[in-house]
Design a protein that fits this description.
Layout (H helix, E strand, L loop, with lengths): L8 H4 L3 H51 L3 E6 L4 E6 L9 H12 L12 E2 L8 E2 L4 E8 L10 E6 L8 E7 L4 E6 L6 E5 L4 H7 L1
Antiparallel strand pairs: 1-2, 1-6, 2-3, 2-4, 5-7, 7-8, 8-9
Length: about 210
């Protein structure tokens, strides 16, 4: 006489209800985890902005103390930044002086190399600092630049008499959080502004 064998869990597999419950749990975990991940990136962005601001202050102090022009360099390709120092009497390039320099270079011999009067200041920057993963320079805006600088190198200059090159440094993370650092022209102060603002907007918010 044939007898029926009781159905076990392994024979039946997952039921539709069980699959729905698992999918719902995964969705719930994702909803809970995503804001936490976003918060981690935001903390990293603020920490990075604070480190850049601290370095600009160190460059300002060094310029005043040593009597030599200092500048913070922002490498938008490598996402690095560091401090360089130059001679005391160096003047800040203007748009006109840069154009004149470009014309002069065209008449130089090809094998003649142009050497920068600036070099990395190892008393402040022992090495180039790299932004953490997920944080990057969006662009840098100065009074000397006609447009925001989004590639290559950008600079903030600090002079021995206490004047700074007014600069906006725009930082962002992968969650599209943005912070603007506004380097003021006097006292080397750096202001934190949430979001991406232009130089004109930064001046209006004062």
């Amino acid at each position: 006489m044939p007898t029926s064998r009781p159905t076990t869990f392994n024979d039946a597999g997952f039921t539709l209800i069980e699959i729905i419950v698992v999918v719902a749990l995964i969705a719930l975990i994702t909803v809970i985890a995503l804001p936490n991940i976003s918060a981690v990136f935001k903390v990293s962005l603020k920490s990075s902005a604070r480190e850049v601001a601290n370095l600009t202050k160190e460059a300002y102090n060094a310029a005043v103390i040593t009597g030599r022009v200092h500048r913070v360099v922002y490498d938008l390709g490598e996402q690095q930044y560091w401090v360089e120092s130059g001679p005391a009497g160096l003047m800040l390039d203007t748009v006109e002086s840069k154009e004149a320099e470009e014309r002069r270079k065209k008449f130089k011999q090809e094998d003649e190399k142009h050497t920068s009067p600036f070099g990395i200041d190892k008393t402040i920057s022992r090495k180039k600092r790299t932004l953490p993963r997920g944080v990057e320079f969006e662009d840098v805006e100065t009074e000397q630049s006609k447009e925001p600088i989004a590639e290559g190198l950008a600079y903030t200059h600090f002079f021995p008499h206490g004047i700074s090159e007014q600069t906006l440094i725009h930082l962002k993370d992968t969650s599209n959080h943005r912070i603007t650092l506004h380097v003021a022209p006097i006292l080397g102060r750096t202001r934190f502004i949430d979001g991406h603002v232009t130089l004109k907007q930064a001046l209006e918010e004062k």
